[in-house]
């Protein structure tokens, strides 16, 4: 039932997405008729700093955790009731609050649809990308889920930022890089062969040389899937160039570890079976 409801809301394009209100409309912006208004007002007041001091220091986190469910209940047409609260939580001083929103922003995007997502969620998403690693991991784990909801032109803007995920606050945080490799495998279906070759290929090669073996193993799968994707593209130049680079960087590498990497890449998905049948 939840999936069907999300599907219905996401595909309902007749609802208004105008988020600018006159002073009179601003006073009425929190009014809706889905749930008792007093209940909604009580929920919205959870972001009041005084409540956090006198009631529960974790109250803002609880509010952030429940927000997608509240948004689903109210429906896209009542997003204006939650928008200010969402933006307040997204800029909360506690990183745990921002982290909670980062992990659920892709679910909220499904509820709101592409227009509201582009106008209200993308700026918040961009802020999370520059946040602490504890917050960034939330958007990274669901990067594909969020980007697939954006229009192609908006989605391509993030190609320039994917490289930034290689840099973390703690260089020993190898799980961050492993998650990046997992997400890049999924992102192959969202971008063209040229985009994959120009932007994803350098990141994949960098991950293949990672110091942590768990990251490298996932990267081998990424490169093999990348070769398969480029091979099925209409332009064969990209896969030829990629194969030549693999041979030069790894197969002919002076270090045994580099030559071993080439073998592992071929082994993961039987690379040459894909290429030469």
From TrEMBL:
Signal peptide range in chain numbering: none
Listed GO CC annotations: cytoplasm
Keyword Repeat found: yes
GO terms of molecular function: protein phosphatase regulator activity
Domain of life: Eukaryota
Keywords: Repeat
Region spans: Disordered: 11-30
The protein's name in its UniProt record: PP4R1 phosphatase
